[in-house]
Amino acid sequence: MNHYSPENFSLTQSVGFSINKARNLLVVEMDTALKDLGITTQQMGILLSMRRGIAATPFELSRLLGIDTGLMTRMLDKLEAKGLLERSRSVEDRRVVNLQLTKEGEAVAAQLPNIVPLVLNRRLKKFTKAEFEELRRLLNKFLAE
């Protein structure tokens, strides 16, 4: 089913506009909350993914977080320069780069579960539990291919 046509399309009334605006709002609020840790919202996703064992290579992180490999490399460079992660070549396949959090990276990542929910809950405070679950369901449906 087509929901938009050239006749009824309006930028500010489009789903893409609303999703992008919501994302930008969350990024600003999350970046403010993470400022004292010296990381950004995007860097937070990397650290949490690594800490939880969801991803351990740049390629896995790129796919999981929806970030192109060039930007991922630059973000990893910054995290490495901050002493939060280390890179090493795989002994099985030298083309593969493995990532590991440093002690400092682990310490920063360990603080994130105390910060991130506060930001999200502030934004979701007007939602009922049912509305929250529906929003998650619909976003997952939107993201499914």
From TrEMBL:
<protein>
    <submittedName>
        <fullName>MFS transporter</fullName>
    </submittedName>
</protein>
<feature type="domain" description="HTH marR-type">
    <location>
        <begin position="1"/>
        <end position="144"/>
    </location>
</feature>
<dbReference type="InterPro" id="IPR000835">
    <property type="entry name" value="HTH_MarR-typ"/>
</dbReference>
<keyword id="KW-0805">Transcription regulation</keyword>
<dbReference type="GO" id="GO:0003700">
    <property type="term" value="F:DNA-binding transcription factor activity"/>
</dbReference>
<keyword id="KW-0804">Transcription</keyword>
<dbReference type="GO" id="GO:0003677">
    <property type="term" value="F:DNA binding"/>
</dbReference>
<dbReference type="InterPro" id="IPR036388">
    <property type="entry name" value="WH-like_DNA-bd_sf"/>
</dbReference>
<dbReference type="InterPro" id="IPR036390">
    <property type="entry name" value="WH_DNA-bd_sf"/>
</dbReference>
<dbReference type="Pfam" id="PF01047">
    <property type="entry name" value="MarR"/>
</dbReference>
<keyword id="KW-0238">DNA-binding</keyword>
